[in-house]
């Protein structure tokens, strides 16, 4: 859970910037998008196989 506590003389803009940085560092949006819809086991296997193929393609490149 991302949480930001405002400082004594801190503006809302800088606090919002810190909050956005924490959310992106914690991969909250990626997790939210991943869990947005139910994924059947076969769809999950296809997605993982595709990711493995993509990763293997770039691993042995130049």
Describe, in plain words, how this protein is organized in 3D.
It is a single chain. With 62 residues, the chain is mainly α. The model has no long low-confidence stretch (mean pLDDT 88). The radius of gyration is 19 Å and the shape is elongated. Helix content is 65%, strand content 0%. The protein has one domain. It contains three helices and no strands. The chain has helices spanning 12-25, 28-34, 41-59.
Give a quick rundown of the structure.
The protein has one domain. The chain contains three helices and no strands.
Tally of discrete structural domains: 1
- How big is the Rg? 19 Å
Q: SS-based structural class?
A: mainly alpha
- How far the N terminus sits from the C terminus, by CA atoms, comes to 40 Å
Q: Helix proportion of residues, in percent?
A: 55-70%
User: What is the strand tally?
Assistant: 0
Task: Give a short account of the largest sheet.
Answer: none
- Helix-strand pattern: HHH
Strand content: under 5%
Low-confidence stretches: none
Q: Overall pLDDT, averaged? A: 88
Number of helices: 3
Anisotropy-based shape: elongated
């Amino acid at each position: 859970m991302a949480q930001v506590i405002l400082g004594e003389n801190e503006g809302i803009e800088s606090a919002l910037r810190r909050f956005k940085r924490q959310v992106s560092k914690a991969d909250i949006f990626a997790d939210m998008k991943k869990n947005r819809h139910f994924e059947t086991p076969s769809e999950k296997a296809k997605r993982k196989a595709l990711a493995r193929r993509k990763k293997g393609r770039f691993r042995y490149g130049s």
